[in-house]
Amino acid sequence: MPSAERPTNGMTDAVASTNVQVLGSGPAMAMASQYQTGAQAAGLAALNAVAAQHNQYMQHRVAMVREVTAVLPSRHRSRPRRQPHRRETVDNDVIQQLADVISALRKDDTDTCDC
C-alpha cells in the first residue's frame, strides 16, 4: 500500500531543481533577447544611414555633371568619338567656364553644409 507521506527521493529533488533553474533564468534570457534585438535595430539604422548618404552623394554628382555639360558648348557634346591616337585640345574659355562652375559648386556646398 502506498504511503501518504511525500516522497523524498532524488527524482523529486531533480525536478524541483530544474524548475527553479528554468524559472530563474527566464528574465535573463528575456533581457538578452531584448538587447540583441536592440543591437540589430541599431545596426540596421546605421546601414540605412550610410546607404542614404551614398544615394545623396550620387544624386549630387549627377546634378553636377548635368550642370557642367549644360555649360560646355554643344560642339564638344555632339562630336563623334575620336581615334585613340589623336590628341584633343581644349579651349581656354572652356577651362575658364569649368573653373567657374567648380568654384560656384564649392561655394554652394559650403553655404549649405550643416557641419
TrEMBL record:
Source species, domain of life: Bacteria
Biased composition (Basic residues): 74-85
Positions of the UniProt region annotated as Disordered: 73-94
InterPro entries in UniProt: Killing_trait_RebB
Stated name of the protein: RebB like protein
